[in-house]
Amino acid sequence: MQQTINACADKLAEKLISLSESKEAIAVGGHTAAFTMDVIASTAFGVDVDASSNPDHPFVYHSKPFLGLAKSEQFFIKSLQIIRVILIVLLPRKVKEIFGRFFDMTFAGQESMSYFENLVNRVLDLKREDAQKRNDFLSMCIDNMVDIKDVHKDSINISDGKNLDNPRVYPVYLTGFSCEYNDYEQMHEIFKSNLCLGLTKEEVIGNAVIFLIAGYESTGATLQNLFYLLAWYPEIQEKLYTLTSEISDEDGNCDYEELQKLEYLECCILETLRLFPPLPRLDRVANKDVTVKGIRIPKDMIVEFQVYALQHDPKYWPEPELFRPERFSSENKDEFNQYAFLSFGAGNRACIGKRLAMLELKVAIAKTLKMVKFEKGANTPRMENLTYKKGPGLIQTMEPLKVNIVKRQSE
Ligand code: HEM
User: Which cofactor does it need (predicted)?
Assistant: First the structure.
């Protein structure tokens, strides 16, 4: 997998070198996002995209509705898409089922659904022909796939939620892929029974798409934020450059084990995530009545955690607005409360993509710092002046995080 990520990071480094010819400060966010799109397209779907050079690639186009982005910038089409999504979210399920007989009521649109379904079919064909040895997520799942058509509805007995002749079938409702058993309660019962042994095609597609939704913006934004911070902290940037150069060849390729051992690199990423947690708030639902520090939380109440506030609280983080990677060093790790850092969440539902995200970030940092350095320019916003967009979802600054990119002279 690291080789695949290396290839994507090479494209990012090339792009940044070409941008270094500009004298203006540049918002790198679009390019770091293109890098993570390339990584997910290749590691999850086995598709080579190069999103930065091919912004019209079908993978980029059909990913947009899943990422909450409009496929078209035309006002009329954009408005129609927004109305459609609002209707899909708000309409009761029964009404949606009736509408669905006449209109496309899939969340991302039938065209994009079909695109991803066809990708899986193509991987299936390649696998059958054994024409290529692949190690992307789709190819790995396909060996354990069950065909939904082979399962009769009657073979599922959900009366007690456990007695299932074939417990392997339940639909992926999150991404809106419809299948024969698209009854929410039925799916939930089967899911609860925890007896699912294989994956249907719908589940495979659904999981690959979830990788895209969960891993694209969070990782791309973290890389952008780190480049921005390095521009303000040149001494940290040079230390990182020296340490990564020691373990990399002339193209910036690093050995996996060596990369994992580089503690300072990990600390820089974690400190970036502390200052800019991509998900600024998390929530949980109480599954029973409970009293915490005198506050009664009734069953089913949603409890929200303000991750951003926690990670900027001087009670837990002295001088919280300063970028200090050594806070996370093995020497200092016991100094802070582990639950005061929730950028990847905690507990049973913590981020499952953390290892992939860390690997992507480490590879990209080692590669790019080998080629370029980031400097603050006249248009680089000061940290204390940053403001954030209001609303749900991922945190986003109002100001583009522009930095100057300077090509390194090879020594
Ligand atoms: C820097 C990058 C990333 C950050 C900061 C991040 C952060 C998070 C957070 C905060 C959660 C919720 C945890 C909770 O509620 O306790 C989460 C969940 C999740 N993440 Fe990530 N994530 C990142 C990258 C990725 C990647 C690359 C993938 C997949 C390829 C991924 C897949 C997921 C999935 C599937 C969940 C849901 C887990 C569940 O509900 O059980 N994430 N992530």
Answer: heme
Write down the residue that tokens 């799109």 correspond to: 37
DSSP 8-state assignment for residue 408: P
Residue carrying the six token digits 């995530």? 273
The residue with greater pLDDT, 236 or 177, is: 236
Instruction: Give tens-digit pLDDT for 109-154.
Output: 677 778 888 887 777 777 666 645 666 777 777 766 655 555 444 4
- The amino acid occupying position 164 is L
Helices 29-45 and 2-19, axial angle in degrees (round to 10): 160
Q: What's residue 75's pLDDT?
A: 63
User: 58, exposed or middle or buried, with CB in 10 Å at 0-12, 13-18, 19+?
Assistant: middle
Residue 226: partners with Cβ closer than 8 Å, 6 or more residues away = 268, 269, 272, 361, 365
Q: 70: which residues sit within 8 A by CB, 6+ positions away?
A: 64, 77, 78, 81, 82
Would you say 351 is a known binding-site residue? yes
> Which ranges in 276-353 belong to alpha helices (H)?
307-311
* Crossing angle of the two packed helices 354-371 and 201-232, in degrees rounded to 10: 40
Who's near 290: CB < 8 A, 6+ residues apart?
296, 297
Euclidean distance between CA atoms 152 and 86, whole angstroms? 34
Q: Which sign does the torsion angle of CA 347, 352, 356, 357 carry?
A: negative
Which H/E stretch holds residue 402? strand 402-407
Residue 279 is predicted with a pLDDT of 93
Q: What is the C-alpha to C-alpha distance for residues 52 and 16, in angstroms, rounded to an integer?
A: 11
Ligand 1 center to 276 CA (angstroms): 15
- For residue range 325-381, list pLDDT tens digits in order: 999 999 998 888 889 999 999 988 899 889 999 999 999 999 999 999 999 999 999
- Report which protein residue has its CA nearest ligand 1's atom 15: 345
Cα of 66 from ligand 1 centre, angstroms: 16
Distance 139 CA to ligand 1 centre (A): 22
CB of 211 within 6 A of ligand 1: the answer is yes
Question: In Å, what is the CA distance from 112 to each residue of 207, 216, 244, 343?
Answer: 15, 17, 40, 31
